[in-house]
Amino acid sequence: MKLHNRRKFMTRAMLASGGLAMTRAAIAGPAKKGQVIHHVFFWLKNPDSKEDLQKLLDGLKSLEKIESVKQYHIGVPAPTDPRPVIDSSYAVSALSFFDDLAGQNAYQVHPLHKKFVETCSPLWKKIQVYDSADL
Amino acid sequence: MKLHNRRKFMTRAMLASGGLAMTRAAIAGPAKKGQVIHHVFFWLKNPDSKEDLQKLLDGLKSLEKIESVKQYHIGVPAPTDPRPVIDSSYAVSALSFFDDLAGQNAYQVHPLHKKFVETCSPLWKKIQVYDSADL
After folding, report:
1. Domain Stress-response A/B barrel: where (chains A, B) (predicted)?
2. Residue A129 and residue A38: Cα distance in Å, rounded?
């Protein structure tokens, strides 16, 4: 069993044993094959507006409640050493994990997501999305 | 303070002030404050070469062994519904989580990472990196 899979197997075994009576938050990595990883980067129309940034963060927080979202992270550019290959020009990022494509589809049409787009899309000038299937 | 850094500072200051009543517990996902999320997208010189793809996947798998990598996912474009905001032109993606900036820095200079770059960089024509600080 490869290291990568072994870690996944161990996580599953731990969960199955009930030894970990924990929330999703404490799980060291999603364990389901075929997970969809949805990463969105936002550029604001008014990048210096604290108010707009706060509105976007508040909107993004609401998406975490969508049932099919299994892991969720809101981020800002990290102060890693600048390199030409790093894009740190965005204002906020949102990373969400779904068990499968159906979960991602359900998210897209969920009332909370629709409300988020309606409320927050006037704030951004650009978004960039990457959807990955976890191998 | 440059515009970019000021924005980061503002976000952190807002968080420190409690303006975001977002507890770590409420976030689904690893709970360590200050985690660095490193997402890299690769475009191959020979996108139709199964061999090159496999070499890159093998190289990426080796990076999981680096101690400071806390969560690791190798992906390919997911078959979500095409939208203009989705970039699905890359061949492979690698998503890694670090507890802090020091962990990411250690990864960059780790012998396994150096070996990966040496072995695999001739395979790619472009990489795009996003480093996010988890809020």
Report:
1. 36-132
2. 7
> Residue B42's beta-bridge partner residues?
B92, B127
Q: How many domains does chain A have?
A: 2
Do B109 and B69 have their domain in common? yes
Strand residue runs (E) in A7-67: 36-44
Containing structural domain, residue B56: 31-133
Q: For residue B107, give the chain A residue with the closest CA.
A: A80
B98 and B122 both lie in a single domain: yes
**Which is nearest to A29 in space by CA: B66, B72, B132, B62?**
B72
pTM for this entry = 0.79
Q: Smallest CA–CA separation between A19 and chain B, in Å? A: 18
What ipTM did this prediction achieve?
0.79
- Residue B80, helix vs strand vs coil: coil
What digits encode the pLDDT tens for the residues B22-46?
333 333 444 467 899 999 999 999 9
